[in-house]
């Protein structure tokens, strides 16, 4: 019965991340029930989460994010194009069903568009309203410590303490339907580890 309940869990029914935070080091063979795969090729290898060619079908964490939060992880790209991507404050279930994809979240981009752009996009990563930071290309095979924080109306991303981009959103994505985290990918060969989420 418990397995049926987990499988049928709606995103809004997911438990919240508490004051002690959440972490995942991927030191196991399978993703397990904590993660909702919307159709990408997400696998664990040697203690790392690997994805390639997900084409905007995210891997959603089945936990609700705190309103103000710090999210940290280690990440590397084994593709010359870089193209590291995660989503924050989404609905926990959305995915691309065609070439076009409008997210329910902020899309955090490091080395997007052939390693030319660092950005934070609100819902549409191709929208004119995305916040674009200075050029800071992803070096292939280098492990970066990626950090994302939201406090108040500002969301900021860093790689190894170098700011990638920030966005001041007068209508921040929050509450039901905007309270989940996901790994995402287009075609790059990405590796993630040591996810840590804590309230601020």
Please describe what this structure looks like.
It is a single chain. By secondary structure, this protein is mostly beta strands. The protein has one domain (35-199): Exo-inulinase, domain 1 (Jelly Rolls). It has two helices and 15 strands. It has helices at residues 2-7, 112-115; strands at residues 22-24, 35-37, 42-45, 48-52, 59-61, 69-77, 84-90, 106-111, 117-122, 131-132, 144-151, 154-159, 162-168, 180-184, 189-199. The radius of gyration is 16 Å and the shape is globular. 39% of the residues are buried. Mean pLDDT is 93; it is low at 1-10.
Distinct helical segment count: 2
Report mean pLDDT, rounded to a whole number: 93
Classify the beta-strand content into a percent band. Answer: 35-45%
Categorize the overall geometry.
Answer: globular
Q: From N to C, what is the helix and strand string?
A: HEEEEEEEEHEEEEEEE
Q: How much is the radius of gyration in Å? A: 16 Å
Distance between the termini: 36 Å
By CATH, the topology is: Jelly Rolls
Which CATH architecture? Sandwich
